[in-house]
Design brief:
Elements (H helix, E strand, L loop, with lengths): L5 E5 L11 H9 L4 E8 L5 E3 L6 H4 L10 H5 L19 H8 L5 E6 L9 H11 L6 E5 L2 H10 L4 E6 L6 H7 L4 E4 L6 H9 L3 E2 L7 H10 L3 E4 L2 H16 L3
Parallel strand pairs: 1-2, 1-9, 2-4, 4-5, 5-6, 6-7, 7-8
Antiparallel strand pairs: 2-3
Pfam family, one: GDPD
Protein name: Glycerophosphodiester phosphodiesterase
InterPro entries: GP_PDE_dom, PLC-like_Pdiesterase_TIM-brl
């Protein structure tokens, strides 16, 4: 088995389960994920919760902004039925819930801070505090489209890796990332080209593109030398990595 490439389950195994729920995270692990990618927002009373949108509407059918709801209100919402009645009753989890579950598992955690629209003052300190409380610093990478937030994370915790999220074709992104103390590029996968990965690798910078569900594109990114791939279907990537490892170990 090829363990050199991290298989990040995007919002958990969100191709199979309601995104950013504990069932999606558990299913990701079952399907071969070696990493979990998730989105962190903060409730009105300061609880870190895992949901992509600033509003609860899309994944619960209810109304309200995460920043204006208390955790007890958020935890009452059904975050599974929108996907399938099979998942009725799934809740929006807290970051603590995910970290407690992941603590004894061999998983890398990619925590995306969703503070590029809602500022969530103090989020960085809370996230890092939760990670440090469980000794997960070496297994965590913090990403964000808010690169000022990544600077804050580095000031608080130089030992925790950060990755710049972006969707544009940046010029020399490895240099930009290095200038803000980041260790990783987290680009939209269509901006990822072989020369970028090569320059990033030479600069000691890893590349974890998102979100790749097509096996052919997965293989292209593997061949480029990416360190991780973020996908809704970790089973597809697992199959590619497993098949590649089998061919290497059994060339005849």
């Amino acid at each position: 088995m090829n363990n050199s490439i991290i298989n990040y389950a995007h919002r958990g195994a969100s191709g199979h389960c309601p995104e950013n729920t504990m069932v999606a995270f558990r299913r990701g692990l079952e399907l071969g994920a070696t990493g979990i990618e998730t989105d962190v927002q903060m409730s009105k009373d300061g609880t870190l919760v895992l949901i992509h949108d600033e509003s609860v509407h899309r994944t619960t059918g209810q109304h309200g902004e995460i920043s204006q709801l208390h955790i007890d209100e958020i935890r009452r919402l059904d975050a599974g039925s929108w996907y399938s009645h099979e998942f009725a009753g799934e809740r929006i989890p807290t970051l603590d819930e995910l970290l407690d579950w992941a603590a004894d598992k061999e998983l890398t955690l990619n925590l995306e801070l969703k503070n590029n629209i809602e500022p969530y003052t103090g989020m960085e300190e809370k996230v890092i505090g939760a990670v440090r409380a469980r000794g997960l610093e070496e297994r965590t990478i913090i990403s964000s489209f808010n690169h000022y937030s990544l600077l804050t994370c580095k000031r608080i915790a130089p030992e925790v890796r950060t990755g710049i999220l972006y969707v544009e074709n940046l010029v020399d992104p490895w240099n930009y990332a290095r200038n803000i103390g980041a260790e990783a590029l987290h680009p939209y996968h269509l901006t990822m080209e072989s020369f970028i990965v090569q320059h990033a690798n030479a600069a000691g910078m890893i590349s974890n593109p998102f979100t790749i569900n097509d096996p052919e594109r997965m293989q292209q990114l593997i061949d480029m030398g990416c360190a991780g791939i973020i996908t809704d279907y970790p089973d597809r990537l697992h199959e590619i990595l497993h098949s590649k490892a089998e061919r290497i170990s059994n060339p005849l």
